[in-house]
Amino acid sequence: MRPYVKVSRIVFNAVYRMRCARAERRDEAVFLSRQTDSPSYDFSELAREFEERGWKVTMHLKKVRVRNLPAYVRHVLVEIGLLARCRVAVLDRYDPVVSLLDFECDAPCESDAVNCEFPSRPLVLQLWHAFGAFKKFGYQTNDTPEGHSFDFMRDYKIHRNYSWVVCSGEGCRAAFAEAFACPVERVVALRRPEYAELVALREDARNRAKAHGRRKVLMAPTLRINDESAHPFRELYEHRAEFEGGIDADVVWAFHPLEDGLPAPGNVSDALLDCDVVVTDYSSLVYEAYLLGKPAYFYVPDIDSYRVSPGVNFDPVELAPALCATTESELAGLIAAGCYPTEEFEAFVAHAFDAPETPIADFVLSKL
Question: Considering just the CA atoms, what is the radius of gyration of the chain in Å?
C-alpha cells in the first residue's frame, strides 16, 4: 500500500474509533458527495422518504479540491463524525473516507470479489448517479488509459464498504457488480426517484423545445479522463462553424463539467430540457434523453479504440446502428433525417429501466 494511503487509513480509523466511543447510533441518514455542492434530485427525494419515516437527514456535500488542504481536512473530519453516529450512509460516487474506514461488518459472503465486506453499522448505500451501464467504469477499466491500474484501485480500497449498490435496471446488475468488484447479490435494481421526475417533465420539455422555433441540437459527450484519449467532439468543436453551417439547426455544446474542474451535475440541465435532439458518444445522458422523449444519436468515430479503453457494456454500433455516425457527414445526415427509428432507441435503453418501484428508503430500512 502506498505510504500516504496507509497513513491516511490509520489516522481516519483512529479518529473514527474515538468518535464512535463518544457517539450513539441514531436513526439518521447521512448523504455524502465530494462532487457537488447541492443535492441531486435523487438525494432530495430519498431524504424526504427518510424524513417521512421519522428519520433525521444530514447532507454533507461539497465539491472538494485536495489542493485546498485546510477545507479538505475539515470536510473529512466532519464526515468521519457523521459516519460514527448515523445508521445509514448514502453515496452517489466513490468516497475515499468511506472506503478507507473499518466499519462494523457482517461476515463476508462466499465470493472471490475484491470488495466482499458487508458494513452493517452503518449500512452504506451506493446510489450511483447514472442510469444504465452504457460505458465501462470502476474495476471494469483496470489497466486501460481511461482507468486506473488494479494496484492503484486495491491500494486506495476504491469502492470498498458498500452494503448495497443500487442500479436502475436488472440488465445492469452484472456490469455494476464488475464495476464495483462486489458480489452481484449485493447489487439491487430499484427505480431511482429521478425516473419519475424525468417522465413528469416530458411534456414540459416538449413545450420548451417548441417555444424556440428553430431546431436545437445538444452536443453532449461523455467525460474523458486521459488527455491522450481520442476526443472527437473536441475535434469537431474546433471547426464547429463549418459543421453548424451544414445543418439547419442551432447547436449547443455541453462538455462534461468535470473536464473543467466544475461540480458534477446533479439534476437535469436546462440545455437538455430545451433541445430537440441529443448527440452524444457514450454518455449516460442518453437515458435521460429517452425519458424526456428526446431523440438521440451517437457520434462514435473512435468506437474501435473506445471498445478497448475504457470499453462499453452496451455497444451502440451493434445494438443501434441506425442511430450511429462515424463521420461528420453521416452525423449531419442523421440530424437532418425526417424520421427517427424509435424502436431501435427503445431496444438500446431497455436494460436500464426494468427495475421495480419499491421505495429505496423501504428497501434500506428492511435491511437494517
Answer: 21
